[in-house]
Amino acid sequence: MIKNITNVRGISCWGAHTGVKSMRRDLAIIYSSVPASAAAVFTQNQVVAAPVTVSRNNIADGKAQAIVINAGNANAATGKQGMEGAKAMTNALAEELGIDENLVLVASTGIIGVKFPTTEIVEGIRENAKNITNRSNAGSFVANAILTTDTFAKEGFMEYEVDGREINMGGIAKGSGMIHPNMATMLAFIVTDIAIEPKLLKTAVKETVDKSFNMITVDGDTSTNDMVIVLANGLAQNEMIKSTKDKDYAIFKKHLEEMMIHLAQLIVSDGEGASKFIEYEIVNAPSEDYARTMIRKISDSALVKTAMYGRDPNWGRIISAAGNAGLPFDYEKMDLFIGSDKKLEKVLEKGTPLEFDYNYIKKLLRESHLKILLDLHDGKAKSKGWGTDLTTDYVLFNSVYTT
C-alpha cells in the first residue's frame, strides 16, 4: 500500500461527497490528535476569499489542529454571506471534534462569485466528521475531495530521520489552471510529526514556498484562494527544533522543500490544456532572487510558451523575455541551451548565435518534458522553475467551461 498523510503520527482524515459537486467528493477534513505548530502562506491577490481571511486570523498564533476544505465553490467575492459561511465551517468542525474553533483552518476552491452553499457544506461536515480515520484509503479520499479541474490527485509522502527519530511527512495539493508564481489557484496541505517551534516553522515554510510553489506557472493568473498550510504536531518526539542553526532544522527544511517541489511539479504537469512540462534553470547568476525573477518572466511569456507548443526553437523569444525581467542583463555573456530533459543543445554562446540543426531540435521539442537552461556567467547563484506550454486546448477549455 502506498503511504500517504494517514501514515503521519496522529493524523486522521476523511473525504466525502456533499452534493456541491455533482459527481466527485467535495469535502475534505484533516485532523491532528493534538494541537500542532502551524504555518501558512496565502495568496497575494488583492481579492481575497473568505476562507483565506478566516484562516489568516486563526493561524496567527502559530497553532492549529484541523483543516476543512470544500471544492466546487471558491467562497470568493461572496460578501457577508460568504464570510459567515467560512466561519460556520470552522465552527461546525470544532464542535464535532470538541476543539477550539480557533484551531480550525478553512479552505475553498471552485467558482468565484457564486453564493456559498453554507447549509449543505455544514451538514456535510457534521455528518462526516465522525468518519475521520487513519486508514490509508481516507488519505486518498481527501486528496481527491479537493480537486476542481484537476485530472488526477496530487500526493506525496516521505520518511527520514531527525535526532534518532523517524519523521513522517505527507502532503496533498490541487491545481490545474490559474497557476502563476506568487501562489496560484492552488491549495497544498502538508502534515508532519516533527517537533518544531511555530516561529521557526513559519520561517521554513516561507523560504521553501519561494523555491517551489512560487516558481511554477501555467497561465499567469494568481487566484483569490491560494494557500499552503503546514502542520507539525511533534508526535515523533524528537528534541524540539528551536533555531535555524540547529542541524536538525536544515534536515527538516531540505525535506520540506523536496515535498513542496514534488507537489508543485505535479500541479504543473496537470496544467489545463498543457502538452509540455517545461523546466527552466538559470545558473551562474548574481543572486538567487535575480535568477528566480528572470525565470518567472521567461516561464510566463506567452511567446515562449507558444514556441514550445509549436516545437519551434525560436530562442530569440527566450532572451527577449529575459531582457524584460527588469534586471540588469548582458546577454552577450550568456550561453543558452534548449531541448528535452534528456538532451540539451547549445544555441547561443556568449551572446553569439551558433549553427544548429533546426529539425533536430524540433525533434527534441516533441518530448513532453522540455528544458531551457541559461548560463549567465555573472555570479554563482542558481534557481529552477517549472511551467507549461500554451495550447489551443487551453483556450478552448477556458472559453467553454466556467472555473
UniProtKB/TrEMBL annotation:
Site feature location: Involved in the stabilization of negative charge on the oxyanion by the formation of the oxyanion hole: T109, G110
Catalytic activity entry: L-glutamate + acetyl-CoA = N-acetyl-L-glutamate + CoA + H(+); N(2)-acetyl-L-ornithine + L-glutamate = N-acetyl-L-glutamate + L-ornithine
Cellular location(s): Cytoplasm
Top-level taxon in the UniProt lineage: Bacteria
EC number: 2.3.1.35, 2.3.1.1
Coiled coil: none
Main localization category: cytoplasm
Binding site for substrate: T148, K174, T185, E272, N398, T403
UniProt-listed GO biological process terms: L-arginine biosynthetic process; ornithine biosynthetic process
Matches recorded under NCBIfam families: ArgJ, PRK05388.1
Task of the protein: Catalyzes two activities which are involved in the cyclic version of arginine biosynthesis: the synthesis of N-acetylglutamate from glutamate and acetyl-CoA as the acetyl donor, and of ornithine by transacetylation between N(2)-acetylornithine and glutamate.
Family: Belongs to the ArgJ family.
Protein name stated in the entry: Arginine biosynthesis bifunctional protein ArgJ
Taxonomy of the source species: Bacteria, Pseudomonadati, Bacteroidota, Bacteroidia, Marinilabiliales
